[in-house]
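Entry for the shared binder. Reason: the reviewer on the internal report wants the predicted structure included alongside the sequence.
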Amino acid sequence: MSKTPQPDPQGSGETGPTQPLPQGMPGWGPAAQAPGQLPPPPGQAPPPVPPQSPGTPSAWSQPVPATSPLSGGPGSGGPGGARTRPWLIGGGAALAVAAIVGVVIAMSGGDGESAAEGKQSGAPSGAAEPQAPTSAGKSFTKVPEGCRLIKASTIARIAPGTECKPSQFDNSTMAAMITRMPSWDTPFGSGGGQLRLDVNLTVGPSASGMFDIHKKSALDALKKVRTTTDSRSLSGLGDDAYLVHGVDKDPFDLAEAEVIVREGNAEFTVSLTYDTKDSGRNQQQAEDAVVAAARDVLGSLS
């Protein structure tokens, strides 16, 4: 049995809607004003809803779909659609993924190929990239063991009584660099003062830079405790050669002659440390000794 429509409480004579409209509906509120029509004075009821033709569904009488976010159905957080809409989340995630993919493609050059593959545009597939020359002059690829860099006859002449000790780096051979660091020392308790000969060899693309570093170190590293008595460039020894001699300040009695040499992709130093009081050597002899040893080192490379 249907209920009898109740009169409008404002006295307008019109019946109310058959179903109350949620507050979230866009039609909630006073009726729209016709163009040119003035709003009603305060205290007066709003004008009645215009009648509609028979059979035409009214926004006041048409039920809200159960699936609408405004009706509290699935996908809704109650009146007003407070729950976040799933399609907004999905769309935002899709946009974020698209943006990330675009950045990755832009960083990789836009062609979908990894830069780590070393491919160049227009180059045949699998072709190796040309390598820039690392240094001018000779390119050495073979280096003997550390204790064989200097001839035994040369050692007997410039550092008699010393024994060679290979470094842990002597057999370190990498793809781009070879190093040798042997040393010749007088055995402990043999007398005759301290005598030590050192070689520090590098074969690789960093030869030119290492030459500058070792030259600066020989001139400046010990200047607070050592007096430099000779420093000059040498000719006829590799592509570049520089000689430095220094004497320790009192109360120390040691002196050192060092030559820094570069030829092609090889760079090395030869230094002779000796006791100025007990070794029986002088500056000239020490300088001649390191130059002779450096010639042997160059002659051993191939």
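Summary line for the report: The two ends are 114 Å apart (CA to CA).
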